[in-house]
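User: I'm curious what two different proteins look like when written out as structure tokens. Can you demonstrate?

Assistant: Sure. I'll show them one after the other, since each token string lines up with its own sequence. Here's the first protein:
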Amino acid sequence: MKRRKILILCIDAGSHEYLAASDLPTIRELTKNGFYVHANAVIPSVTNVNNVSIATGSFPETHGITTNYHVDRATGKGEFIEDNRFLLAPTLFEIAKACKFADKTALFVTKKKLLRMLEAGTDIAVAAEAPPSAYIHTVGPVEPIYSAEINWWLLRAVHAVLRTDDPELVYCSTTDWVQHKYAPDDDLSQQHLAELDRIIGNIIDDEPEREIYITADHGMLAKTTAIDPGRVLTEHGIPASAIPIIKDRYVAHHGNLGGAAYVFLKDRADTLQAIQVLLNTSGIEEVYSAENAARTFRLHRERIGDLFVLADETTVFGELETAVEPTEVRSHGSRHESYVPIIGYNSPWSATDFEYNVDVGRLFLESLH
């Protein structure tokens, strides 16, 4: 019986706009012979939340990762989510091994934090940010995390391992420094995707029967206004603080400015008044209580703030010196960056089976039972 082999590729910020602006003959061919779906990302549309959702086939209500930066509601202390201590669900790799689907599994990511979060159940786990020395000899020197070249290196590493180790299940996730800095029609954006497309073509040439799924964790848009929701509320007599959900150590990407935030109230009795103040603030598009946010977006109730706020298309949230400031940044996190492609090739499923990027992992898990 022929072994089923799968490659899942999450192009960080690889939205429709970026794919459409570039000449991508491999992806064009995959689409012609497979399918291309306009799907949804998980909200908040940030890296941690969406990569974990795809790689566990579940929503945050199940896997527990709701942000890049967790604040303990009891102590008020925060920490970056950079390992699997907060992960409540098994990875695709763990389940694939338990179900005897795979003898060998592989995880390739650009960022070290994703490696530490998702490596359970893998036989091969590589972060391009700090790769094992053996890969330097095989693939070549790796470039800095803030470059297009690091993603090309990552895909070449995937190609090398597919040739030598032939793992049945491979998950690969790039980084979005290019999209944070350059619009879809910029030359570097197009070069970045064209080279990824070329390497994907090489992978298919070597192994034309492997199932391939290409999706994104979020999109990317230009922003002109920054708001600190905590300061907005405090200035209206409601003591509060806010943490942008995008907050992580990769500040050269986004300056810790993103389109979604959790608000922590000093007194939860202020909830209704706080919601009204924020909804009356220009640039803030949606505000939810914790209960409504958990229900609406399938978030883990104990892993979010007292309020969940989403920005409009040109606004981001941050921890600022003043309540509102002008800014010039490309970022994500809101509903406006939550529309992503799913491309399937050699898939047993059809386009209509996919509504969310999560479904790539979910349908795979269902097929194991």
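Here's a second, unrelated protein for contrast:
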Amino acid sequence: MADKELRAKSDKQAIDQFIHQVRTLPKGGGGQGRLIFALDATASREATWDQACHLQSELFLATRALGGLSIQLCYYRGFREFKATGFVSQTGQLLQLMNAVTCLGGHTQISRVLAHARDETRAKPVKAVVFIGDCCEEPVDDLCHLAGELGMLRTPVFMFHEGGDAHARAVFQQVSKLSGGAYAPFDRNSPRVLKDLMAAVAVYASGGAKALQDFSSRSSPEVKRLTRQIR
């Protein structure tokens, strides 16, 4: 029982830190922001892919009053398969794209996600990148270099980490820090946590740090509690 309480406390502290990191990012302008929604679609992530399909509407619903959001789905799977869709602005469009994808075993390709995000934002600014994954099988230095490039371009990467892999946690934390984003763990058995985190970044991408602060003030009891702790 004590171990369970300690784990719960640790997760709450990590989410507290995530909310704090997001709120201290530079303010963005209003209007429709561009966000890249990137997911690991290898075999180990099948259950959470289905969960993300159910929760993806939060990315749009949370930003309606801020001018909305334009989202690009990005994923990798199988043997070096990497896909990026066009940008969509309706939840039905994103859900249709996600439902067409099935998870397939393979190695991680996070470097391709970051390089793609860099190239996209060089063409037209991307306000934020959301990445959801559970492991990392790539050279850390390469990922950190790409994350640093995104940091210079002011495109923060928000690394949402499923599970407890210690190596992935360390890498994801470095990527988020170098890009100017934030790291947050989640458990597939607690979909509300992932829902709140996705909505928080969507609000930031659409309206900036001030919009996120306003969102937190009227959000779920958990987000209100976290916000009170960091004030």
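A detail about the second structure: The chain has a mean pLDDT of 82.
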